[in-house]
Hints:
Layout: H1 5-14, E1 16-18, E2 22-31, E3 34-41, E4 47-54, H2 64-74, E5 84-90, E6 93-99, E7 103-104, H3 105-110, H4 118-137, E8 150-152, E9 158-160, H5 165-169, H6 188-191, H7 200-215, H8 225-236, H9 264-267, H10 273-282, H11 293-297, E10 349-352, E11 360-363, H12 370-377, H13 394-398, H14 413-419
Antiparallel strand pairs: 1-2, 2-3, 3-4, 4-6, 5-6, 7-8, 8-9, 10-11
The structure holds adenosine-5'-triphosphate (ATP).
Amino acid sequence: MATSSSAVEEDASQSKLVADRYLKREQLGEGTYGMVFKAIDTKTGKTVAIKKIRLGNYKEGVNFTALREIKLLKEIKDPNIIELIDAFPHKGNLHLVFEFMESDLEAVIRDKNIVLSPADIKSYIQMTLKGLAYCHKKWILHRDMKPNNLLIASDGQLKLADFGLARIFGSPDRKFTHQVFARWYRAPELLFGTKQYGPGVDVWAAGCIFAELLLRRPFLQGSSDIDQLGKIFAAFGTPKPTQWPEMVYFPDYVEFQYFPAPSLRSLFPMASDDALDLLSKMFTYDPKARISSQQALEHRFFSSVPPPTKPALLPRPPPKGETLNERPLDLNLQEGPFVLSPLRKMRRVTVNHVGFGGDALNAGRGSNNNENDKEARGGGESGLTGLVPMSIDLEAMFGSTTNLRPKLNSVDRSHLKRKLHMDPEFE
Ligand SMILES: Nc1ncnc2c1ncn2[C@@H]1O[C@H](COP(=O)(O)OP(=O)(O)OP(=O)(O)O)[C@@H](O)[C@H]1O
């Protein structure tokens, strides 16, 4: 996304120059480590994203190890890893400058106008695994893989963002509202509190992202670490010590009621046999037996038909910051004219998607209640429509699994707030 030199000059008069090089533009958002701003790199004319990391949280400042690791990150060059262009301290904050990315995988998954074909899903998950394999080869773990950390460039390339930051700046604090969602991608060994983990944690998370691409909603949405484990065990069966001998020695190990594994096919009815085989290997409990990112790339899923879609041809949401005005007018998205005569009937009909194909008509819901609307649109939490068949709801299938999963159906309010862009404090 290059900017002409005249545009740079014009901008220079309006915006603030940071570190004598970057013209600061609007704020893009705030994440675990601090604010992110859009900026123009006057040296290259390119648009960049600057992550401003609050050093106040790191009492001794960034130590030498951290600086050495940041230097290492700058040397990572791979088409599926976001490029760290520059790093510098400014006014007590550390600034990390990254290439600017138009979108992210979370936006793709949530965009109801996007239909993802099996070839598209294959392409997105292949790019994810390629980025992971590159870093794992260099012994760098991500540790915080989730769809909004998988950014998408204007040429369709998916790039892993925030690589290595968890190691440098410490594991993100799960107290932050925006971090709660990362739990859904956490491997069972992390949930059991082990401090000795490896690249398998990223492979597990990639498996969750693969599942989310297939289902178009987060796969296992735990409301606490224990609930997350319960949901994992309801999906894949409670692990037996013979299956995963180290499990019982983990610091936070708790014994769960035995629950047999349902068939993977019942969870992902539309996935190919190859996709299911790869998923089962990514979701192997014992991290030592779990498939590696490189082995996953070599799995027959990627060589069987259909071939993965070329990145440039992948369906993508409109770039960030693009307003509806810039898109073709869609009358379905607009409010129609008001009715001036008294209403005879205040009734609205919405369609509720239940499981796959089990649509039920749901009449008379209030139109101003976001949560009701979301629920009515199907899936509760994610509010996704049945663009692709939804998976079977585990509880609906297996009846009472409440011992395993105490809050299976509870809607995560903070997630809703985030998805609806509401203030986390809002009640
Ligand atoms: N390289 C980038 N290009 C464009 N936008 C970016 C880039 N990096 C981050 N952003 C945007 O800035 C915002 C904050 O990003 P950040 O990565 O700090 O947190 P997050 O991904 O929202 O949450 P978390 O910290 O939990 O991962 C998000 O909207 C993100 O899409």
